[in-house]
Amino acid sequence: MNAANPQYEYGLLKFGTILTVILLVAGTAIGTYAAAQLAWPFLNFDIAEITFGRLRVVHTNTIILGFGGLALFVTSLYSVQRTNSNRLWCVPCAWLSALFLIVSIVGGIIGIAFGLTQAREYHEMEWIFDLGVAIGWVLWTMVFVMTIATRDKEKVPHVYVSNWFYLALLIAVTYLFLVNGLSIPVTWYKSYSLYSGVQDAMIQWWWGHNAVGFFLTAGFLGMMYYFVPKQARRPVYSYRLSVVHFWALIFGYVWLGAHHLQYTAVPDWTGSLGAVISLAMIIPSWGGALNGMLTLSGAWDRLRTDYILRFLIMALAFYAMSTFEGPVMSSKTVNALSHYTDWTIGHVHSGALGWVAMVAIGSIYHMVMKMWNTEMYSMKLINVHFWLATLGTVLYIVAMWVSGIMQGLMWRAYDEYGVLAYTFAESVAAMHPYYVMRFMGGVLFVAGALVMLYNVAMTVATAKSRQPAVAAA
Amino acid sequence: MAGHNPWPNEGNTGHIWDEDIRELDNPPPLWWMLAFYAGFIMIIFYAIYYPTIPLANGFTKGIAGWTAIKEYEESYNELKAWRKQKFADKEEKLASLPLADIMKDTDLKLYAVATSKMLYGDNCAACHGAGGMGNPNFPVLADDDWLWGGHINQIHASIANGRVGNMPARGMMGNLSDEEIEQVTDYVMALSQGKGNDPAVAAGKAVYAKGMCLACHGPNGKPLAPNGAANLTDQIWRFVPFNDGTCKSMVEKTQRDAVLRTIKYGVNVKKNGDLIDCTREGAMPAWKGRLSDKDIKRLAIYVHELGGGQ
């Protein structure tokens, strides 16, 4: 078999892959512009649709649901075919699923810019778009499950670990999304949530944290488990490790939500439970990072020459770091300082830029070469992209660490009269240099994404005219 | 592919996917397994220490006796006790003495200023700017130009009870024509440069009298006593060009436009309960009830000492 084998369905995935790269550029560019607005507020030009309050939400939705969702969609449907040696079950269903997802997400995002929102973090789009996402999601789940179910069980008796993680993502997000989205529509574009008060907060963060746990972690671990051994051409370090850390994560993640609500009106036990399970999740999370990294044992020299592998391994390093940082931030003592500060934003981005984006970028480069059956237009540009992305991410998170901790310390500082030492406005003014630094980090990351878009576009455009990378074998 | 293992000696599980994906049969690293168990054991100790486990009726309280509100109250009470021990006499005097007496006690006055920075920053600075430097259409507090008076008691009254500006549109009787408004605008501009008696603005001066502007702004453009009306003989403008999109009838480009708008549409002019288009909004909220009496006194002293108190 080779990549050009007609056994596999690539048409939809090729389309989806290119759109994913476009969404990466769009989402990070919007985010960078929003970051610029924090440093130089005049940049909103008093236009309601692009003020920070809306643009930030457009950014998070474009990145999480748009870029992240589509990256998961294409990589899951790519790897599920290959790890089950089975053609996609019901290709039209998969197209229909993509159509529902893309139209609803794009519609929802445009709606947000025009002020249509449920005001639930990471679940802002209004009910009508929600419904479209849900239909697309269930169709995707169905295609994925059936592709596994209809495999030749003689030839492929076992289901590979990447598929477990994708399945966890698909199943968990289905119920998380639906339960959190329960609402009563009053017009086509307006609904009211079924929940209120403390219940509302609990349900919202039960979803909110699992947008991180299942969407941005479990799904992307699935991606890691396929593309790391594939790109490294090395066996996964430990089967048993993958079993243990998989079930530990699946057990743990659903409990964490309340750590977003420390020191609020929710009962004290919920925060404690969220915090302690978070702390217990450090080691299971590191299980994934270890398994990925140790896959390289004996082949570390590959990192010198294989730029795609660099993305995947750097992603695992950021994953290990942010899965340590997150639980530490959820503990009461640290949370009392870090909550509501930029540290949270920095943490999210070390996960989103360092882990999610980098592992997806590496996987996309790998897929582009396989699906178009060619080398990349320029391998050097992948390296350029790698350094732009890495430096951009580091600049971003360092800026937010410093500004976040400074913010937290300024808010709680007392002077010699026992009066708070700084006004809120003074803490905002003190953030300015770090907001500029964060913006520059964003610029580097977007520049990298543009390099990728160019490289992918040129690869696709010239694929036919160049020699195939691998002879059919 | 099952049964055929091209990598028989690397210790894989024998499962092979997509031509070359396989997994080794390594156990997880020992340190990892130990840490893994330790993590779950920690949950038990944590749950004994903190309120953690929900029960049918309530939840376990934990042996530490910790609650979030208790943690907050304890640290706040500690601070309060420290403050009381150090500054109780000063706080007592601030609360009981009249402002005039506090102003004579330099030590106490400086204490009031030093403890007002946050109060000012969080409640006043949004409009009046850091250090009282003002903002477009929000008065500067650091100079000696006062609309409602710069004496400590007047400043205190402004903060405690708030102030609502009011100026009728088109003169006191509301009957100035567009042409008369142009003329009186020229006169006001001339006044600000000390040229009120220039024959070129004689017509405007007549309108100033006809419109009874002098009732509040004084016969020569300077109010006889603080009443909220601006002093027109200096170049400190209460209202500057401020195109925030809420005024639909005109666009202000120059300071003359801004003066003309104020004369034509007045300040806080209402019709049927709603502000009319382009009228100026000038209102300071009352802080009595929102801040303690002691804090309002403190702020009055702070504002007085910004530089312009009389």
N-to-C span of chain A: 6 Å
The second-level CATH architecture of chain A is Up-down Bundle
> Regarding CATH, which class of the largest domain in chain B?
Mainly Alpha
Helix content of chain A: over 70%
Spatial ordering of strands, largest sheet of chain A: 1-2
Which oligomeric state applies?
A: heterodimer
Number of helices of chain A: 15
| Fraction in beta strands of chain A | under 5%
Structure description:
Chain B: It is found in: Cell inner membrane. Chain B: Pathway: Energy metabolism; oxidative phosphorylation. The complex is a heterodimer of chains A (473) and B (310). Chain A is mostly helical and 473 residues long. Chain A has a single domain, classed as Cytochrome c oxidase-like, subunit I domain (Cytochrome C Oxidase, Chain A). Helix content of chain A is 73%, strand content 2%. Chain A has 15 helices and 2 strands. A two-stranded antiparallel sheet of chain A has the order 1-2. The longest helix of chain A is centred in the C-terminal third of the chain and has 39 residues. Chain A is globular, with a radius of gyration of 22 Å. The N and C termini of chain A lie close together (6 Å). Chain B is mainly α. Chain B has 3 domains: 48 residues, no CATH class; 84 residues, Cytochrome Bc1 Complex, Chain D, domain 2 (Orthogonal Bundle); 104 residues, Cytochrome c-like domain (Cytochrome Bc1 Complex, Chain D, domain 2, Orthogonal Bundle). Chain B is built from 12 helices and 8 strands. Chain B has a two-stranded antiparallel sheet with strand order 1-2. In chain B, strand 3 and strand 4 form a beta hairpin. In chain B, helix 7 packs across helix 12 and helix 8 crosses helix 11. Chain B starts with 11 loop residues before the first strand and ends in a 6-residue tail after the last helix. At the A-B interface, helix 2, helix 6, helix 7, helix 8 and helix 9 of A face strand 1, strand 2, helix 1, helix 2 and helix 5 of B.
